[in-house]
């Protein structure tokens, strides 16, 4: 059964979601949103950014969820480098039913990576090339008008490590606000459910970090998960 919920995000440290750059101004990504006072251009957090943060957490948790069965081993060996997913431990692939394996193996090279993606709970929850994600996210839109500020920054020349004075620019940031997005989850098997629940518990406890400048502490969000509803 598919279930869904509404998740609330509260900005805890300045959030940088880049939209248009105009000269030395870097604006926040904004889209038209229907509000009680008509159409407004308000910032949004793209679903891809939220999904990326959840997947990153799942990859860390998944690698430490034990290795006492082949699928857990496969999950622990899940790696993503420059967008490419691989698994070193492929013993779990024998667990995929013969019917599916026969079909996928007929596809040659590509077919065998489908097998990996289907058996790995991380790939199954968040998707892999040719395999649809079981967890889906909407963009997060503000529940009321967020507070935006321009912050001036100088850019540092990476070669000389000197400030390029002519490169002073202002970046627009979301300094406070509340966003909501919808999360839809398809039927999960028991190992996928275990991973999913651990990820949700972690996120509820620790929050999420979204957008640019994570290394300098930007984009920390408090997370409130709503009631789940079956549909
Ligand atoms: Zn995987």
TrEMBL record:
Q: One GO BP annotation here?
A: defense response to virus
**Phylogenetic placement of the source organism:** Archaea, Thermoproteota, Candidatus Korarchaeia, Candidatus Korarchaeales, Candidatus Korarchaeaceae
What are the alphabetically sorted keywords of the record? Answer: Antiviral defense
This chain's protein is named CRISPR type III-associated protein domain-containing protein
**Every CRISPR type III-associated protein domain range:** 43-222
Does Transmembrane count among this protein's keywords? no
Keyword Cell division in annotation:
no
Pfam families assigned to the protein according to its UniProt record, in alphabetical order: RAMPs
User: What superkingdom does the record give?
Assistant: Archaea
Q: Please give the coiled-coil regions recorded for this protein.
A: none
């Amino acid at each position: 059964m598919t279930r869904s919920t509404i998740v609330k995000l509260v900005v805890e440290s300045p959030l940088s979601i880049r939209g248009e750059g105009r000269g030395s101004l870097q604006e926040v990504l904004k889209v038209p949103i229907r509000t009680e006072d008509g159409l407004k251009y308000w910032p949004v957090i793209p679903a891809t950014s939220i999904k990326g943060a959840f997947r990153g957490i799942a990859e860390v948790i998944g690698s430490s969820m034990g290795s006492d069965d082949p699928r857990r081993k496969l999950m622990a060996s899940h790696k993503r480098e420059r967008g490419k997913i691989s698994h070193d431990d492929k013993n779990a692939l024998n667990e995929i039913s013969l019917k599916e394996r026969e079909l996928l193996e007929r596809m040659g090279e590509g077919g065998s990576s489908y097998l990996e993606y289907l058996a790995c709970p991380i790939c199954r929850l968040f998707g892999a090339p040719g395999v649809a994600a079981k967890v889906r996210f909407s963009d997060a839109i503000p529940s009321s008008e967020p507070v935006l500020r321009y912050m001036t920054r100088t850019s540092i020349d990476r070669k000389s490590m000197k400030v390029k004075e002519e490169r002073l620019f202002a970046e627009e940031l979301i300094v406070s606000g509340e966003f909501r997005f919808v999360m839809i989850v398809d039927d999960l098997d028991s190992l996928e459910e275990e991973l999913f629940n651990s990820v949700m518990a972690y996120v509820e406890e620790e929050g999420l970090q979204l957008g640019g400048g994570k290394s300098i502490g930007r984009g920390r969000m408090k997370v409130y998960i709503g009631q789940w509803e079956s549909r």
